[in-house]
Amino acid sequence: MAKFLLVLDDTERGKIAFQKIYELAKQGLRGEVFLLYIREMEIPPFVSEEKEMSAYHRLMTQSIEKLEKYKKELENVGLVVSDVKVAFGSYADRILMLEREIKPDLIVVGLKKRVVSRLFGKDPCEILLKKSRANLLICRG
After folding, report:
1. CB 3.0–4.6 Å: which of 2, 15, 91, 128 could bond 31 by disulfide?
2. What is the pTM of this model?
3. DSSP state of 123
4. Is 13 helix (H, G, I), strand (E, B) or coil?
């Protein structure tokens, strides 16, 4: 069975990636899907540990709720969702870490329309293209 890593986040790129795999599943794509929800964030150094833990807990709870909705929709169109993860940190780094762990056949990501970041070579998709060993499906809106 084919393994897919679907990468979601709070931006348009997450919605684009979800829509693409959803449409492909409606057309007959089958396989095992790992959902990775990335929250790109850094806690300022002056925030207390208690507030930091509270923020992580709140964001983790919100993210898991969103993932459950995505999971149900994917299962309704015939995909098997085998795992759901929430990660905090760098978009490309988190994807590459999970890729080494699960060894997917295909990583599905959305492409954000940020011209400025692409001009300076900081687009996460460029990093994935250089460092990922899996096939990539980079979806544009």
Report:
1. 2
2. 0.86
3. -
4. helix
